[in-house]
């Protein structure tokens, strides 16, 4: 209920008085990795951050999303979207929306066995492999465009 009520908050000062708790999963499906992250977040003097999300961060995120949505049609660069079907923080519809609004070519990877933190979770190697393939394809396209046509030797 607090998330719905928070939509009324417009002031950083008011948002600064609140913190949203993390989901119990921390956005990580793999129990071993989740336990490691939980221990890192709760250890004394942790350099890895803290548990919970400051509401000021949520407010600024909301503002950034509002501004970005107005500009998506101007994105013409190739884009890779990686999203989990089981994401416990963000709905897959967000990725589908982006795919439809971005003007350039969009590669979308939907993961089936991860939550929100896809670079840490069970399918992190899929994320690495698909990212590497995406970058390699872009590099090759640029290389082909940059290489002048050479006559074929007979």
Topology (SSEs and partners):
Elements: H1 2-6, H2 12-15, E1 19-20, H3 31-42, E2 53-54, H4 55-69, E3 79-84, H5 92-101, E4 106-111, H6 124-146
Parallel strand pairs: 3-4
Antiparallel strand pairs: 1-2
Question: Could you walk me through the main structural features you see in this protein, from its secondary elements to its overall organization?
Answer:
- It is a single chain.
- The protein is mainly alpha-helical.
- 45% of the residues lie in helices and 10% in strands.
- It is built from six helices and four strands.
- It has helices at residues 2-6, 12-15, 31-42, 55-69, 92-101, 124-146; strands at 19-20, 53-54, 79-84, 106-111.
- The strands form two sheets. Strands 1-2 form a two-stranded antiparallel ribbon. The chain has a two-stranded parallel ribbon with strand order 3-4.
- The radius of gyration is 20 Å and the shape is extended.
The outline comes out as extended
The total strand number stands at 4
Rounded mean pLDDT is 90
Please report the distance between the alpha carbons of the first and last residues. 74 Å
Strands side by side in the biggest sheet: 1-2
Radius of gyration: 20 Å
User: What profile does the largest beta sheet have?
Assistant: 2 strands, antiparallel
Key phrases:
mainly alpha; 154 residues; two-stranded antiparallel sheet; 45% helix; two-stranded parallel sheet; 6 helices; 4 strands
In short:
45% of the residues lie in helices and 10% in strands.
